[in-house]
Every structure is written in C-alpha cells, then in structure tokens.
Amino acid sequence: MSRRLRTFKRWMRSHGIDCSDALKLDDAGSESGDGISVRAVCDLTEGDLVATIPKSACLTIRTSAARDMIESAGLAGCLGLVVALMYERSRGPASPWQGYLQLLPERECVPLVWTWREVDTFLCGTELHKAVKQDKTILCEDWRECIEPLILSGEWKLDRDNFGVEQYFSAKSLVSSRSFEIDDYHGYGMVPLADLFNHKTGAENVHLTSVCSPSSSDDEGDDHASDDKLLIDESNTSSSGEDNTALEMIIVRNVEAGFEVFNTYGSMGNAALLHRYGFTEADNPFDIVNIDLALLVRWCSSTFSNRYARARISLWRRLNYSGCSSQHTEYFEISYDGEPQLELLVLLYIIFLADDAYEKLSYMVDAFEGPDESTNIVNLIKITRNKFRKVKGHKKPEDIKELLVSENVCSALISLADLRESLYGTNSLDEDMNMLKRRCPVKDRKLYHSLILRTSERMILARLRDYALKRSSGKKA
After folding, report:
1. Which stretches in the chain have pLDDT values below 70?
2. Distance (Å, rounded) from C-alpha 116 to C-alpha 351?
3. Which residues contact 236 (CB under 8 A, 6 or more apart)?
C-alpha cells in the first residue's frame, strides 16, 4: 500500500469512517488503467454493509471553515462547495480534511481543464465541443463575479495563488466529478471513500444510502439513491436542520474476491461521462448523436429555399412539435442503434409534402391533436395521404414511425448524416479507429477518450445511414 493510502486510512479512522476489511484500496489502478480502485478481499454478498461515513466527515459548505465567508457572499450549491474545497486546500496541514485532500489529484482530466487548443483539436465535431467552450467561458465569468471580489475585499485574507482562475477550474473539476448531493442541510459535498469507487455502466455493486443514528428523528424514508452520481436521501435530517445521520455503503450486487467493486454514476453516454468524469466506455449503449435544427435548416434551405424551410418548420411547430433543447440549441437525437427521433421524422415528412397536402394539413391544424402520439401520427397520415387504408392496421409505436419514412425522408436522413459527419474534419472513421488502436488510455488519456467519443458517434451516424438505406430499399421493393 502506498504512503498516501496509509495516510488516508489513518485519517478515516480518526474521523469515524468505518471501512470494512473486506475492501481493499488499490493504488495500482482500476480496469480503466489509472487512479485508485476498490477491490473485494473476499466474496461480497448483496446486503453486506461495507462502510459507514459520518456526515461530519464530509466536506460541505456547512462543515468547512469557510462557511461564514461563503454564506455571507451568498454562494451556494456546487459553486459554494468549490470555494469550500479551495479554502480547505489552501490551509494545508491545518485543514481537518488534509488526510483526505492529499489523496485527490490536483485536478480531474475533464475537458473543462483542457487548453482551448486541446478542446478544439480533440473534441471537434463531437457533442462536447460547443458545450465545453461555453462552460469554460461561463466559469471564467463566475470567477470574476463571485471569487475575485472575495480576494479583492481583503476581509478574508485570501491568497490569489490559492484562489486564482486556474485553482478555481481545478477545484471545479473535482467537485463536478466527485461530489454527491447529501441532503437538504448539507447540500452538495465531498464524501471521502465513497468517491473512490469507479463507475461501470450497468454493473453497480455498491450503493450509498443515508441512515438514522440513535439520536435522530424517527421519521422513515426511502434510502435508495438516484442517478447523477447518487442523490442521497435526506429524509433523516432532523427538523432543526442539524446533522444526525451517517452514510452507509451497501453491496447491491455480489462481487467475487479479487474483483473491483463498482459504483454507477447513472445511465450516461460517453459525451456525458467525458464531460463530467473525464473517461469513456467502449460500446456504451447510452451513446447518442445530436443533429442540430440549424443543420437541418441549412440542408433544407440549400435543397429548396429559405422561405420554404421556414414555412415547413412553422407548420411543424403549429402541430406542437419541437426538438430537444439545451443551452439555447434545438436538436434531434439519434439513438445508439441509429434510429432517429420521432420529431425529426415528422419534420422531414412535412418538408416533403406536396403543396396540396401541405395546404390541407395547414388548414386542418386545429383538428389535428389526438389523445396520444400514435393517434397524432395516424391523423397526420390520414390528412396528407390518399391511400392510407393500405397502412391503416399499423398501430405499434415502431410501426407508426415507419409510416413517416418515405424514400425522400430516407434520402434526407443520409444527407443529414453526411453533413453531421463533416463536422469531425477530414479524417475518416477508419482513420480514427486505427489511431485509437495505437493510443494508450493512460499516456494518451485526452486523445484516447476523445477518439472513443468520436468513433462512437460516427458509428451511430453509420447506423443512421443503414437505417435509411434499409427502409429506402424496402420502399422501392
């Protein structure tokens, strides 16, 4: 065992954290090839209690020595926790969490802390490229508006070397990748030991829950955590707001001796995993690719005209359709198996309507809305297609989509896939995959995980083309 792990284990004992001897903290790395992993010393069975963590041992705004400063500045949530983490780090050995903090990396290797050049080079074309650039800009603004005034006031005697922009980004990377939402009293916090369990999609072995101590309220609640790194049940916080509970780590899936014990951060695609935690997983079934509405408008305007595109999209909206939205961007999702979002198919169907069918549908908008999505699609087809009786028997959701997929729609899907793929640059998918095979997930971490994301997204676009080609061939047959 390394020196830093021995220091951490002594620190845990001194702060009342009970870690079972059935767990081994391994500094040799996890299955992903880096960092600390937690392994089973002996066979672990569902229901086994493997750790108890007092909430007082967690680093939160409430427990930090920076509490008065943070609350007087009106900071809260993750931003307040980032300041608390920076403050405790600045105290060095004087911090009660020094034995824990010395175990953490300076920063997590998330895109947020990559250089601007690395973001542009490694993430070009991916779902993260625009989001990470926006994040970096917003965080710089947060620092100027919330952190710098604390430094300049002189009231708290903060050293810019410990509270500068770089230190803020570093602390933010740790909070975004390691924090848990503990309860209403503590809010977000760093939970020592719990944050050492690595993620594996669909393979959760351990679960973090909240449990009453003998002195706490007798209220009972559901102790099951939810997705998004694990939301801990807060029903056991006393009515006075004081902290009377501990956190428990319980085995929820059997683990054989010698194997790694995994947590799960939720059902996330590689874009979300890389964004928040700095890693990816090969063949991740939760991967998606987005096609921006702006890209579709560009294609439609070049195929028809700007006026034509605006009119068809306007009718689509009048029928109460819209895409997904995030950070002022509207988009359509393409699932892991290459299947397009229903709203995209509806829009493409409307774009290719003959003028008389378009006018008829526009006239009948008020009578369009049905009790469910399937009925709406059937109504759309009835209004715009003369020979609907040939497909009238199709009622299942997957069949409903098929009603919208004409030869023209299939051709449009292929064109949109090509336009979306052009954003990745000049390298082909085969070139990206060959480059990936030559990269090491530890030595070339940024490039390696970026390539996993790129190739995964591009394979989804290939499946979208296959989806369209298969259905186009069926229409011709």
Report:
1. 29-34, 211-244, 370-371, 387-398, 475-477
2. 39
3. 183, 210, 211, 212, 216, 217, 219, 221, 244, 245
What residues contact 152, with CB distance under 8 A and at least 6 apart? none
CB 212 within 8 A of CB 236: yes
Model's pTM, two decimal places? 0.88
> Residue 269: which of 37, 467, 449 has the closest Cα?
449
What whole-number distance in Å separates Cα of residue 443 and Cα of residue 342? Answer: 41
Which string of b and e fits 51-74 if b means at least 16 CB within 10 Å? bbbebebbbbbbbbebeebbeebe
- What is the torsional sign of CA 206, 208, 210, 211? positive
Helix axes 407-421, 342-351, angle to 10 degrees: 120
For tokens 């509490």, name the residue: 67
Please tell me the distance from the alpha carbon of residue 462 to that of residue 34, in angstroms, as a whole number: 32
463 contacts 283 by C-beta, under 8 angstroms: no
pLDDT at residue number 424: 97
- For residue 203, the model assigns a pLDDT of 87
User: Would you call 362 helix, strand, or coil by DSSP?
Assistant: helix
The first and second tokens of residue 347, run together, are 């829009």
pLDDT of 224: 32
- Residue 315, C-beta contacts closer than 8 angstroms, at least 6 positions apart: 350, 358, 361, 362, 365
Q: What is the pLDDT of residues 424-435, one digit of tens each?
A: 999 999 999 999
Burial of 154 (0-12, 13-18, 19+ CB in 10 A): exposed
